[in-house]
Amino acid sequence: MTQSSHEKVLVQIGKKPGKYQKYLKHNTPRQRKFGKSVRKCVVSGGTRGVIHKYGLQICRKSFRECALDLGFKKYN
Question: Quick count: other Cβ atoms within 10 Å of Cβ 59?
Fold first, then answer.
């Protein structure tokens, strides 16, 4: 489908409220209740390596940067 025909379809859907509601019902992403996409880092917004123990909710990369500010000590 080309760009111009895609834009035509969106214009046609916009003119028909019933079809637009059906399009939204079947094509919008649903809210997740569990899984990887639910837990996000509050600092960077990443979903990989999120530490949620102690209520931190930050990824490991952000944790390395701000661990001393949070009161954690590095032991050798």
Answer: 21
Domains by residue range for the chain, with CATH: 1-30 (no CATH), 32-76 (4.10.830.10)
- Say which residues have a Cβ less than 8 Å from residue 50's Cβ, sequence separation at least 6: 39, 40, 41, 57, 58, 59, 60
- Using one digit for the tens of pLDDT, what is the confidence trace for 14-27? 788 888 888 778 77
pLDDT at 42 over 90: yes
Between the alpha carbon of residue 67 and those of residues 9, 29, 42, 59, the distances in Å are 51, 35, 14, 11
Largest CA distance in the chain: 66
